[in-house]
Structures are given as C-alpha cells and as structure tokens.
Design goal:
The structure is a homodimer of 223-residue chains. Chain A is mostly helical and 223 residues long. Chain A is built from 13 helices and no strands. Chains A, B: Keywords: DNA-binding, Transcription, Transcription regulation.
C-alpha cells in the first residue's frame, strides 16, 4: 500500500472511531483517549491527523453532506427525494452521519463547529431550481425557503422519532413526511410519477453498496 | 397573601430561574447554585419545592404542553394550527418553553427525563380526529401518524432555524411549513378558509396577554 493511501486509510479509521464515540456520548463527554483506543492507531499517527478533539468534530462534519449513491433521474425532483430518502436510510446505520447530526443539534458543539445545514439547504435548493426550470415544480415556489424547510423537517423527524418511546423507522417516517409535502412542490403530472417510499430508500442503499458504476441504465433499475 | 398562594408563587419563581439557566447552558452544565442565586429565594424554600436538579428538569417539562390562549374555532383545523402558531410565537420568548425543548433535544437529558412529544402528538391527533369527523380533513389521513410528523417537523424548524447563521423568525418559518403541509390534510373548501400566518400568531399572543375571557366573540376578533 502506498504511503499516501495508508495515510488516507488511517485518517478514516480515526474519524470513524471519533464518530462512533461522539454519536454515543455527545461531544462534551467524549474523550480523546477513548477515541484513540477505539481507533487502535499509534498516538503519533493520531495527533498527526487530528491535533485536537475539535479537529475530529470538524472532520466528522466534513463527511455529513453527500450525494453518494444518488443516480441521475429523468425527473429532477426524484433526485431530490432520493437524496433525502437515502440519507434517511443511511443515517441510523452510519455513526459518521448520525454523529454529525448530533454535533449540529447540540447547542454547545454547534456554537463551536457550526453545522452542515446551510450546505444541505443549498444542495436541495439547486435541485429544486432545476426542477422549477424544467416545469416539474410549481413556478411560484421559492427554492431556498422550501429547501430550508425540507432540511428542518427532515432533521426534526430524525430527532423526534429517535426520542419517542416507541421505535420508528426513519426512512418510513421521512417518506411519509415527503408524501405530505410534495403536493405543494410538484405539479400534478409529475407528482404521480414520483416514487416516495422507504422501499426505494433501501433499494438505493443496496445499489450504492453493490458499488456498481453510475449510469442511465442503473437509474431504471432503481424502480 | 395566603400561605398556599405564596408557595405556588415561590415554586414558579424557582422554576422560571431553572428554565432560564437550562435554556442558556443545557442541563449538564447548569448548577443548582446558579439557579438558586437567580431565583433569589431561601435555600430552605428551594429544596422544599425541588429536592434535586432532576426535579427542576421535570418541573420545566411539566409546563411544556399548553393550549393557553387557544380559542374555540368553528373550524377545528384552525384550532390545531393556532396551537402550533402560538407556540411558535411564545417559545423563543419564554425560557420555560424553550428550555423544555432543549431538554428534549439533548440526548443525555432526554434519557433521564423523557420528552413531552408524545403529549403534543396526542393533543394534535385529537384535533385532527375531530376535524376528520367533521369532514374538514381528508378521510384517509391517519391522525397519530400525521400528528407525529407535525410535531417532528415543527421541532426541526425550531432546531434548525436556531442553528443557522442568519436569524429566522420562528412563527414565519412555522407558518410557511404549515402552508406547505395543509393541502395534504384539509379538504379544499376548508383549506381556503384557514388562516396560516405569522401575523395570526402575534395576534393570538397579544389577546392571550390581554387576559380577556375566552368566548365565541373573541374567536372572531382574532381575524
């Protein structure tokens, strides 16, 4: 393994360990020594990549916005939905994503490191703008405002469903939320062609994990 | 002042002080001594009402679900909207409400004290059920599921808009969210008669503070 490749791998191992600990305990209660132990790397390597606990938090937040696994769709609104559905599937399963949300929701760590909510908002708004330009979305919608509400509502569904006594499946809850919201966003002829379901989230995830190359043919297979 | 009345007042003063400190620092970082100092009551009175910090948290959470200021409306869905709009107006202004949300959002304090989200869900679901029985809401909606999503989305709007670099007005954001959601809940003939705006939230608050008695005449004045 080339030296650079090994460094990238070590960095990733440390970051995964940090995410797991942040996700379990929150930023404040997490200690470098626990992260170091869980990562199983040398102190030298550790501090080379992340000189402080704050650098670990920033590293985790750096991984929180992704369109990995999102395939180009004929309908741009479907791409936007896919982004939110796939994230709903992944977040409860991936401490990296779950920890980033926890860091953002906690007011103390948020004051120190900020959040990725503005980036998520811009990402969804750009898909909404494209959808509007193509006539898929109602012409009067204000992309940034709608995108901000989508990010907020998605986040709330995660926070609240995690906090309720019964267990709720995040993709199912997010799909129900999006089903409620989309009639106010998509024009009727597009609305009927959208797929908004937890099943789609699971399929998107399975395809991403298969690691197949992206392409138009694959976009079809998601259905 | 009668002894009982004084006790009630003292309890309230302590609880307000606790809410202010919890709201600023979070549960973990709050100390009894700071709350005691801010309340300005004797140690004896303090520990009589609240033997521990946990009792203070439970006391704050006890105040978090309220329909104070909500007037009976001809359209039940309007009552549901009023409940959510008025809360959006009050929460950023009242540490008691804001602190309760913070305690619920924080995973550590939530594990200790639970949340009021189930109570909010039941409250909104009962209004939705009434709306459905009257034909105001679509007959196929599942009240508990929709109510849970409303609570979650409302909460997310608070958490995210508080965390964004720009300032957002909570009643304005919540009104925009409800405007997006209501077409999937209300039948069209009712939808056009609903008032969903930040201005209504402010008016509901002003009327509540005037302390006027509730009644049908007042319900009209809200418009």
């Amino acid at each position: 393994m080339a030296q650079q490749e090994r460094a990238i791998r070590t960095r990733r191992v440390i970051l995964e360990a940090a995410a797991a600990v942040f996700d379990e305990r929150g930023y404040e209660a997490s200690t470098i020594s626990e992260i170091l132990e869980r990562a199983g790397v040398t102190k030298g390597a550790f501090y080379f990549h992340f000189p402080s606990k704050g650098d670990l938090a920033l590293g985790v937040l750096g991984e929180a916005v992704t369109t990995e696994g999102i395939l180009p769709q004929e309908i741009k609104l479907q791409e936007m939905l896919d982004t939110m559905l796939l994230m709903a599937y992944r977040l409860p399963r991936e401490p990296m994503l779950s920890a980033a949300l926890r860091l953002a929701v906690d007011r103390n760590s948020r004051h120190m490191f900020g959040t990725r909510w503005p980036d998520w908002t811009v990402l969804l708004a750009s898909l909404l703008a494209e959808a509007k330009a193509r006539g898929e979305a109602h012409p009067y919608i204000e992309e940034m405002g709608i995108a901000r509400l989508l990010v907020a509502a998605w986040t709330g569904v995660r926070v609240v469903s995690e906090g309720l006594p019964e267990e709720y499946d995040l993709p199912t809850e997010v799909a129900a939320l999006l089903q409620l919201l989309l009639p106010s966003i998509a024009v009727p002829t597009v609305l009927t062609r959208l797929e908004i379901s937890a099943g789609r989230a699971a399929r998107l995830f399975a395809m991403m994990r298969e690691g197949e190359p992206e392409g138009a043919g694959l976009a079809e297979r998601v259905r």
